[in-house]
Amino acid sequence: MNIPSQLIEVIDIAMAGYRKENEAFIISILHKEEEILQIINRNMAEECKAENGEFGIVLAICFDVKEDKDALDRFTHSHFKFDSTPAADTDEEVAYYFLPLANNSEKSAKIICKLLEKVFLIKSSQHLNFEVYETGD
């Protein structure tokens, strides 16, 4: 998959706009109108918070254990799982992970695209969209 310039741009915008005040935000990654991943400020998730509160971004990956069984299986048998932190709120119906991303939008976008290909079998950015939201945290 070619790395969509729109993904790099939206990560750039979030990193530039929210880093200074270390604000909470969500970038939704949508495939055919369905949200499949989120990028968040790592300090929004207790499992990923920096001890010094330093800004960073993580990819929030959520699987419905029944509906996303194949994708979850591909994830758990990949290096992505070993680089991720399981969420404390995971239960038998939902598996939730946080994957740290680089402080570089191109590197982060590349990691996301590789995960989309290997785990979700999405090989084209044709049906991908990206939306940024401020949160009230």
Order of helices and strands: HEEEHHEEHE
- What's the helical proportion of residues? 25-40%
Terminal-residue CA separation: 34 Å
* CA radius of gyration: 14 Å
Largest sheet: 6 strands, antiparallel
Give the number of helices.
4
What is the strand arrangement across the widest sheet? 4-5-3-2-1-6
Contiguous uncertain segments of 5+ residues:
none
The counted number of beta strands is 6
Structural class: alpha+beta
How much is the average pLDDT? 92
Broad shape: globular
Please indicate the percent range of residues in DSSP E strands (runs of 2 or more): 25-35%
Helix and strand layout, with pairings?
Layout: H1 5-19, E1 25-31, E2 34-41, E3 57-64, H2 69-76, H3 79-83, E4 85-86, E5 94-100, H4 105-118, E6 128-134
Antiparallel strand pairs: 1-2, 1-6, 2-3, 3-5, 4-5
Helix pairs in contact: 1-4
Describe it for me?
The chain has 4 helices and 6 strands; from the N terminus they run H-E-E-E-H-H-E-E-H-E. With 137 residues, the protein is of the alpha+beta class. It has a 6-stranded antiparallel beta sheet with strand order 4-5-3-2-1-6. A hairpin with a 2-residue loop joins strand 1 and strand 2.
Keywords:
about 140 residues, 6-stranded antiparallel beta sheet, alpha+beta, globular, 6 strands, 4 helices
